[in-house]
Amino acid sequence: MSLQSELKKILKIEEDGRQLLEDARREGEEIVQEHRKRARKIQEDQQERLADWEQKRRSELKEKIDKEVQTLEKRTADRRKRLQAMVEKSRNETANKVLGWLWENQ
After folding, report:
1. Does pLDDT of 41 surpass 70?
2. What CA–CA distance (Å, rounded) separates 100 from 106?
3. Residue 85 burial by CB count (10 A; 0-12/13-18/19+): exposed, middle or buried?
4. H/E element, 17
5. 3-state secondary structure 66-103
6. Is the pTM of this model over 0.85?
7. Largest Cα span, the chain
C-alpha cells in the first residue's frame, strides 16, 4: 500500500503542478492582454493628440493665409483706387486740353 499511496501522492503533485501551470498560463495571458490593451490605449491617445495638433496647425495656417489674402486684397484695392484716380485725372486733363484747343481754334 505504501507504493500505491506514494503513486497517489505523485499523481496529486503532478495534478497540482498542472493546475499551477494552467493558472500561471492564464495569468500570463491576462498580463499580455492587459499590456496590449494599454498599448492600444496609448497609441489611440497619441493618434488623437496628433490629429488635434494637425487640426490646430491647419487652423493656424488657414488664419495666417486668410490674413495675408486680406492684406493683398486691401493693397490691390488701394492701388486700383489710385490708378482710377490717375485715369480720371488724365481724362479730365485731356478733356480740358481738347476743350481749350477747340476754344482757341473757333
Report:
1. yes
2. 10
3. exposed
4. helix 2-104
5. HHHHHHHHHHHHHHHHHHHHHHHHHHHHHHHHHHHHHH
6. no
7. 154
- List the chain domain ranges: 1-106
3-18 confidence digits (pLDDT tens): 888 888 899 999 999 9
Residue 76: predicted pLDDT? 94
The owner of cell 498542472 is: 18
Distances (CA, A) of 69 to 62, 64, 79: 10, 9, 15
* DSSP character at residue 62: H
d(CA 4, CA 37): 49
pLDDT at 2: 86
CA distances from 17 to 3, 13, 21, 28, 92 (A): 21, 6, 6, 16, 110
